[in-house]
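FORM 7B - TANDEM STRUCTURE REPORT

SECTION 1: FIRST PROTEIN
SEQUENCE AND TOKENS:
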Amino acid sequence: MISIKQVIRKKSITFNILLFSYYLFPIHCSYPQPNELLTGADIFVKNHLDLIKGKRVGIVTNHTAILKNGVHIADTLNSIDEISITALFGPEHGIRGMAPAGKKIESGIDMQTGIPVFSLYGKDRKPTKEMLKNVDIILYDIQDVGVRFYTYISTLFYVLEAAAENNIPVIVLDRPNPVDGVTIEGPVLDESLKSFVGIAHIPVRYAMTPGELAEYFSNEILPDTLKPDLRVIKMQGWKRDSYHNEYDYKWIPPSPNIPDIQSALVYPGTCLLEGTNISEGRGTENPFRTIGAPFINSEELLDELMKRDIRGAELKPVSFTPVAIQGVVESPKYRDEVCNGISIKVKDKSFRPFEFAIKLISSLVKLYPDDFKFNSYFDRLSGDKNLKEQILQGKSFEEISRQWQKELEEFKSIRNKYLLY
């Protein structure tokens, strides 16, 4: 057993005892062989091509739709003579994932296949009747990060709605929830805050795969008069309590600022900093894992966090200067200014990113009341119009989160009907 004194180092605070088990990230011990995983796309190509042969196929996808052999689903299907792909539909960041966050995407032609591409992150967020005129069936294959404000699930919702309106069947090729399919966090979305970063009445971490979420959207969110003809191609080998790095499947950054699994693990919490004047680390090598501002004293912030029972993460002081990075971020917060703050490294599965973020923001409000600011985006990200005021009032995370529990329990009960694994 490693003592707390051994874990705490100068300029480094670790808030948990590191347990040497299969559930840890690689630290200083040996690990089992990765688990075998086959995504819905792998299973589809192997067993279900008959579902689209002779039909005009539209694929909602991006750069993450890679098969186990390293080839993209669109490139794979386009090489098969009996299959006709007539349209590709791209979410935020584009069909090949090259556009920075928030940048509008234009429709055009996919240079690798020559297939028309329709943007679902430009003038239109939902496929139009005109876009779908040459489509008999839709495939959906996108890796997301299991978080409500990650816009790929909003694209999924609108695809299901448009498909129902136009009587077009949808096949969702399922992929893992990379931050586990068990842990649920954060408030259920207040309907008054519905937006493209909060499309439906679900928590921040909803612990469902894209296929499960598609079933939930279809049966619980869309009206009874608008039910899509939906089929989910399940994965093989995925376990609900697992993280993505527990498999032999290569990590493909789902967006430019989620470069690795560590960023994905903290993103459900530190993305809330986009609704403040604190840098969330865009413009650094470790976005969402590096947070700060020019007015922060790193050691002071670490001392305050030490009082708030942060578990499962190692925090260190850091100074950084956000810069523009081509294809990743054009104008990061505090561009070319020196910021002080902390870096975050997840150590085990006791870490709760949304809880951490509330405790972090509460610490910043306490330490820097004249410098720290919320902006109007915070409410849309949190999905709770009261959260900001409760933080400013100095309420603890435990007091705040108690108010979510009834709705969370109701969500869990409904969610259970749609779990496929």
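SECTION 2: SECOND PROTEIN
SEQUENCE AND TOKENS:
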Amino acid sequence: MSALYKFIFEGLPVRGMIVRLTDAWTDMLARRDAAGGYPAPVRQLLGEMTAAGALMQANIKFNGALILQVQGDGPVRLAVAEVQPDLAVRATATVVGEVPDGARLEAMVNVHGQGRCAITLDPKDRLPGQQPYQGLVGLHGDRREPLQELSQVLEHYMLQSEQLDTRLVLAANDQIAAGLLIQRLPVEGEGNLGGQRNEDEIGLNEAFNRIATLAGTLTQEELLTLDTDTILRRLFWEEDLRLFQPETPHFACSCSRERVAGMLRGLGQEEVDDILGEQGQVEIGCEFCGAQYRFDPVDVDTLFRPAVDQAPGSGALQ
């Protein structure tokens, strides 16, 4: 089963997480493959985004959806991974051109340097006037050189937006999407010496750098083929590490016929009737799971017919 483990290093301001999406990832791919599927590099990108999204959602414990988007000017115009508070995951991509085998991030979404990565936090119960929070970062480093790996982009984002040093390793194939996150936590009173660091701060930084360096030796192949216990034991066998009980990510799509019906009502009867006149039916496909929702003339008539059990003047069926 898919699993996400959190762990800490005793006595050090360093935390970590490791996620392995197995059934959650293959369930998602199977639904998309039935609707045409994606080229291999796009599947890898979406897998890495989904694993990263699960790590980030578990890291902040946000009561709402965490949405990770990569968009740009290449053949992959948009890639999206969404993770709910219960670690329900789903992902989709918009592909408008040929994606060469082995294409990396720059060739897929950042051909002319216009690529962007966005992290959106959308609260589950929004207050009136409340808007989702969104952070943006370009697909380049401090020296404006293009970044070739999603992990580098997200490390850069976390350092810029949260001022947290982070090491991230991501990998995905057609069976597993996985990720390892190591993060330096802030320490109370740190940095209060006018820019001068005391010996304790230097020691904590050295500890994080040591652990981050060890994490960086993990290869994508090892991340995909080794179990969690083996990975942690190989990397951090000299560290005092405490591992917590796993959480269980899973695939789930929030689409439904009722939600699609509500969207059609929002379009208005005139526009829906136009579609019906041209195509004979209204067909809507979910971009996340590939489910198809079809509405024939009788269905459309029912959508916009006033509810018979409502009092006169009480409005249409909602």
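SECTION 3: OBSERVATIONS ON SECOND PROTEIN
The longest helix spans residues 40-60.
The longest strand covers residues 14-21.

SECTION 4: SIGNATURE
Preparer initials: ____
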